[in-house]
Write a structure and sequence with these properties.
By secondary structure, the chain is of the alpha+beta class. The chain is 27% helix and 23% strand. It has 8 helices and 10 strands. The chain has helices at residues 16-25, 42-46, 100-105, 118-130, 139-145, 189-208, 216-221, 235-238, and strands at residues 7-10, 35-38, 54-62, 78-83, 86-99, 114-115, 157-163, 173-181, 212-214, 242-243. The chain has a 6-stranded antiparallel beta sheet. Strands 9-8-7-10 form a 4-stranded mixed beta sheet. Helix 6 (189-208) links the parallel strand 8 (173-181) and strand 9. The longest helix is centred in the last third of the chain and has 20 residues, at 189-208.
């Protein structure tokens, strides 16, 4: 068996059974011209199926408007590789497992297998490791927060969160949230005001949840508002917050398979 981490191939080469499995497990489906990148570590690929029964792939799809946000793995949600002049976006949400024995039974059909360049492989490893470096908020807090998720603003903003405690099973969590536009995002004063109004609704939603309360007093004492331009933010303020990586994989069963998250 000569498969190693970083091997990739066209999705179209997979057996029909494997295609169906992947498409059933990936939100939004998978395009026929996508690529599959093997991200399982080499030692786990070689391990007996009784010990490590699965191999893990991340799906990459052609990206017409590649963003530089993945430089130095700044984004833990996606990574963009240039393969033969074509940018492919790998999304952590499109990570799937296949049974090792069944996959390798059909590997002969994969005739166009290639491997990422060494610098790309190193970048892939850093990106995967970053998933495990995200501070884990308490599970009890996450479960209380599920009903708030759909109220998040859609603008290009970072949301920072502060909790009064990271202990599990706390009776009541006091939550402070601040929205800060992405670096380079040009929001007018009117846009920032509208963002603040959306955050106000989000804060009210937090207050409505049993076991959660919005910490208005803390924001006032630390001169923070619900929506702030980057020029208003000080390092001292950010020392009290952590970036809130809130994506829906944080609320799936077995989220540990993608690494600890902040939300």
């Amino acid at each position: 068996m000569d498969w190693v981490q970083g091997h990739f191939f066209n999705f179209s080469c997979l057996a029909s059974r494997d295609k169906e499995i992947i498409r059933s497990r990936v939100d939004g489906g998978v395009k026929e011209n996508a690529i599959c990148v093997l991200i399982t570590q080499d030692c786990d690929i070689c391990a007996h199926p009784n010990i490590e029964p699965d191999v893990q792939f991340v799906i990459g799809e052609k990206d017409r408007n590649p963003s530089p946000l993945n430089e130095n793995c700044r984004s833990s949600r996606y990574l963009i590789f240039d393969i033969e002049g074509v940018p492919y976006k790998l999304k952590i949400l499109k990570t799937v497992y296949l049974k090792k024995e069944l996959f390798f039974q059909n590997q002969e059909a994969i005739s166009d297998r290639n491997r990422l360049a060494e610098y790309q492989l190193n970048q892939l490893r850093r990106w995967l490791a970053q998933r495990y470096n995200r501070t884990a908020l308490p599970d009890a807090f996450n479960s209380k927060l599920k009903d708030v998720v759909n109220n998040l603003p859609n603008e290009k903003v970072d949301i920072y969160i502060r909790l009064n405690s990271l202990d599990e099973d706390l009776e009541n969590y006091q939550v402070a949230l601040v929205a800060i536009p992405y670096q380079g995002a040009m929001l007018s004063p009117e846009d920032l005001q509208q963002l603040g109004e959306k955050m106000q609704l989000l804060a009210q939603k937090v207050d409505e949840q049993d076991g959660l309360s919005f910490d208005w007093e803390w924001l006032d004492e630390n001169y923070c508002t619900l929506a702030m331009s980057r020029s208003e933010v000080t390092l001292d303020m950010l020392d009290h917050f952590m970036r809130w990586h809130l994506d829906f994989i944080s609320f799936k069963e077995n989220d540990y398979e993608c690494g600890q998250t902040e939300g």
